[in-house]
Amino acid sequence: MVTPPTRARRSRYRRSRSAPLVIGAVLLVIVLAVGGIAGYRVFGFLRSVGNIGNPVQLFQNDLEPPTGSVAWKIKHGQRVNILALGYGGAENEAPWLTDSIMVVSLDPAGGRILEASIPRDLWVRIDGWQDDRRYSEKINAAFGVPKMFPQSQLKPRFQGRDGSGHLAEATVGRITGLTFDKYVAVDFAAFRDVVDALGKIQVHMDGPLDDCHYPDYHNGYVNHGVPPGRACPRGAGIHFAAGDYEVNGEQALQLARSRDAIQPEQANDFGRAKRQQMIMAAIRKKVTSTSAITRAPQLMNAIQSNYLSDMDLNDIKAVYDFAAKVPDGAIHHMAITDQDLVQSFIPYTRGTCGPPAAFVLCPLDPSYRMWQAIFAHAFVDKKALAEQAPVQLVNASRSYPDMHDQATAVLREMGIRTTDGVRHSSIAGSVIYDYSGGRYPLTAAWLRDFFGAEVEPATPPTPGVRATFVPATGERTDGLVVVMGSDFASRWYGLS
Fold first, then answer.
1. N or C: which terminus of the chain has fewer CB atoms within 10 Å of its end residue's CB?
2. What is the CATH number of the domain that holds 453?
3. Number of neighbours of residue 322 by Cβ within 10 angstroms
């Protein structure tokens, strides 16, 4: 019998640098490109950032874009996948580590955007060499491989200016099952300078954040000697009380990077992702304001030398035009953490997928087939979501006590209205009980497809009458109840 995955405590910083908000840079390119600014300086900027060789391209936006391009896909309602990367840059001791890795999927037909964060410590195979050597490392190293190894050893696609971005695309694509159309990458300096060039941004903190283990710029930490979870001494660390703030670039970077606050809700991956999403929204709002045009020279200086992408101006403009019409409520966020699809290990513990001395995250499903199924189903039919069906997941596997919590977390991020799941005695085959009398047909159809289980009409048990399946304590007898058996557990953990 396979031993079920166990929880382990979260990592400390490990000198992590979580640089977010790459899409803000894309918005800046558009503002500067189509905002009425003219002159040699701007064309030089666009040649560097927008991959424009001929200024005439600025006036060709009404033409039919090339078939299969990002602009063409958006125009014709096809899904677009962009890999957004944040890397440390020259002022960091590990300049090419992409410690912010985000899948940005556009759903033009449904008018939605998905932003899914991939954890930096995920241990993966990186396939970039012509001799097909086996090389495994944390996923945040993929972008830097073409910078550190001789180009002649790498496959042709991973050579040249965009080789780093393409290798990162291939690595993330293999685990998610997605084919990326383009990539965008910015470094810390660009992010910080952009916020400063915009003249600060407005943010709101629902609760306080106190972190006295925040990394400094000297390969260390701000007051590293304080034990984790302890209050910071006066004057040490970074501190934000609950409330509204107007933050500069360094403060915005602190909010986005902090991952060892004394507040548990701020120290976990979800809290950090929430802050990053807040900052992204603030940058988006400021960039699209008319005042951004007046700061054109500062903004161009902020990103020109610290921005990499294979998107051209038509693609960037198409993304901007689409994103500008998407309301905040149609932007869905996913953050893969050790609460759903990965498990964490501290150094020198048994069972880790990486070297014994390193902290790594290992996928619950080493085959990544479950990851691929989740990303393939990420855009749930809007009509199904509109049904607002109450859904509960019941864990009827033998050896995996956390599966219902993990799967529930994933479905909630997809927009499914789920209540807390419960455990039940073991069954082999999964089944979906419909206690609603067929009231939620589209949701039931989506669940059937995702879980690979049939939907059976059901009624609450009648007292005194023997039933084939007796609900467990806490199990609902209304709406839709997914009883996940051993067959689904095998899929969830990649055992078959």
1. N
2. 3.30.70.2390
3. 19
Residues 179 and 261 in one domain: yes
Q: Last residue of some domain: 353, 379, 405?
A: 379
Question: Same domain for 423 and 343?
Answer: no
Tens digit of each residue's pLDDT (9 = 90 or more) over 364-416:
999 999 999 999 999 999 999 999 999 999 999 988 999 999 999 999 999 99
Range of the domain at 466: 382-492
Q: How far is it, in rounded angstroms, from Cα 27 to Cα 260?
A: 30
Q: Are 74 and 322 in contact (CB under 8 A)?
A: yes
**Number of domains the chain contains:** 2
Task: Looking at the structure, tell me whether residues 32 and 132 fall in a common domain.
Answer: yes
Q: Which of 316, 349, 379 is the last residue of a domain?
A: 379
Do both 161 and 268 map to the same domain? yes
| Residues forming beta bridges with residue 424, ordered by sequence position | none
224 and 235 assigned to the same domain:
yes
Domain shared by 371 and 394, yes or no: no
- Alpha-carbon gap, residue 402 to 5, rounded angstroms: 9
Verify that 456 and 346 share a domain, yes or no: no
- The predicted-structure confidence for 74-126, as pLDDT tens digits, reads as follows 999 999 999 988 887 877 778 888 878 889 999 999 999 998 989 888 999 99
Tokens of residue 253, six digits:
């970077």
